[in-house]
């Protein structure tokens, strides 16, 4: 679905984070870890996929420390100095996925709080959320937890989009119903997952941004 088709019943808005609120570059962390490890990018991609590390981290199966240790074990050469793979170095490389945050998107979301209940639903990791909140506060904006009535992070709920269970979890926990709810996400599979439950699911597709989809809301 490319727009909200029924605004008359609309009471609740659920937002994805990456490429909806903050632009992202999914290839950037791989490029940076490849440089750190002195490996080809495709080899790093293969390691990620083989071990399912990102999914484990984003669904809370491993914590920050275990994620960093896994990265070191998979990519670090035993002869390299530990400083090169310090926690902050790994965190910085991991956070290169996050691009500049357009403040006007935050301002529009703040306006919408006057008329709608607002929620955030993101497949993400604690390192990313801490960085996004740092970016927001440095721009004199509220944190994600202050901006939204409730935030639902995959690593907290131990579920990930597009699993139907994560959408049902949000509906149940927030006490909202699908027909009064719109969901904005950039991923087609995530949109289909939400739409299957009756949520008005809107795919945010470049060159349009969330601001274009919120004009009539």
Automatic annotation (TrEMBL):
The record's Gene3D superfamilies line, in alphabetical order, gives: HAD superfamily/HAD-like (3.40.50.1000), Putative phosphatase, domain 2 (1.10.150.240)
> Can the keyword Hydrolase be found in this entry's annotation?
yes
Instruction: Return the InterPro entries for the record.
Output: HAD-like_sf (IPR036412), HAD-SF_hydro_IA (IPR006439), HAD_sf (IPR023214), PGP-like_dom2 (IPR023198)
Residues that span the membrane, as ranges: none
| Gene Ontology MF annotations | hydrolase activity
Q: Name one Pfam family in it.
A: Hydrolase
The superkingdom of the source organism is Bacteria
Q: What keywords were assigned to this record?
A: Hydrolase
Recorded hits in PANTHER family, A to Z, give: ALPHA-D-GLUCOSE 1-PHOSPHATE PHOSPHATASE (PTHR43611), FLAVIN MONONUCLEOTIDE HYDROLASE 1, CHLOROPLATIC (PTHR43611:SF3)
Name this protein carries in UniProt: HAD-IA family hydrolase
Q: Which organism is it from?
A: Spirosoma arboris
